[in-house]
Design goal:
single chain, alpha/beta, Spore Coat Polysaccharide Biosynthesis Protein SpsA, Chain A, seven-stranded mixed beta sheet, three-stranded antiparallel beta sheet, 12 helices, Nucleotide-diphossugar_trans
Length: 287
């Protein structure tokens, strides 16, 4: 019976994915509805690359279907050829409020760093999104509500808890998913699920500049966490569990840094380079 339920759940999940993708194709082709508003809502920043440029519209359409709209949605492209030859799906979204800019290639940091570097005086919270997922309709509103309630924290839809072994940070894959909503320096926000960053933290990132290139060029989550704890920002998962309803977009996971970082120890190498003795002391103090 358990196996039958699992099979049913997988089939139901796949059908839901197909329905969502089909609806976003229709919306993208026919809709003229604005995807942003002029309220003081969060700014959303993301990037894409390679063949994902043809499917990133699904992520953006899912955000636009949310219960609240962002004040801006910014897509950063680091490939001049792709920027010059944007797919029709993005051109249609630009007519509805999407901003698309050409920038330097900062690897995964491209999703947020060009905005940080160019924004002179941030007053709005910044939300980062990944380009290979479809977000549920309450995704942005829950992040925004969490920030309004607890602006002194970095609020996230999903996090892991940093573990230690013999006084050293344990391998990344040994970190368990967070199962509570208590703020902690040991909580490690997972960008794929969505994270909201206060304006004050954005200023700290700007001061840190491009140093991430020397420490964790392929792991934005690590750098964002390191700067957070050094700046006194605890990380808070907004509920006791990971967000539900996040769907992978088809044919994107094969290109993800996910594989090299998680399964070949890429995260662990960059963790060793990034965190210093003061970081260790702070993390160990929250035992």
């Amino acid at each position: 019976m358990k196996k039958i339920k699992q099979i049913y759940w997988k089939i139901d999940s796949k059908l839901h994915q197909i329905r969502e993708i089909y609806s976003f194709h229709l919306t993208n082709y026919f809709s003229t509805k604005k995807i942003t508003n002029k309220e003081k809502n969060p700014v959303i920043s993301l990037t894409t690359y390679g063949k994902r440029v043809n499917s990133v519209f699904l992520t953006i359409e899912s955000i636009a279907k949310g219960t609240i709209l962002p004040s801006r949605i910014i897509l950063w492209l680091d490939d001049p050829l792709i920027f010059k030859n944007k797919p029709a799906s993005l051109m249609r979204l630009m007519k509805r409020g999407l901003e698309v800019y050409l920038c330097e290639n900062f690897g995964p940091h491209t999703k947020y760093f060009p905005y940080i570097e160019n924004e002179q005086n941030p007053t709005l919270p910044l939300v980062t999104a990944d380009d290979d997922v479809i977000y549920p309709k309450y995704w942005l509103s829950q992040l925004f509500d969490a920030w309004k309630k607890n602006p002194e924290y970095i609020n996230a839809h999903g996090a892991r808890t940093i573990k230690f072994t013999n006084g050293k940070i344990a391998p990344y894959l040994n970190w368990s998913y967070c199962s509570n909503s208590e703020p902690s320096f040991r909580n490690f926000a997972l960008g794929i699920f969505g994270v909201i960053y206060p304006p004050e933290f954005q200023n700290k990132l700007k001061l840190a500049g491009r140093s991430f290139i020397n420490y964790c060029p392929k792991a934005d989550d690590i750098w964002l966490h390191a700067i957070a704890i050094r700046s006194g920002f605890k990380i808070k998962q907004i509920s006791n569990n990971l967000i539900r309803g996040v769907i992978d977009t088809p044919d994107t996971q094969d290109m993800a840094l996910f594989h090299s970082n998680q399964f070949s120890g890429g995260n662990d190498n960059q963790i060793r380079k990034t965190y210093n003795e003061e970081d260790y002391s702070l993390l160990l103090s929250e035992h």
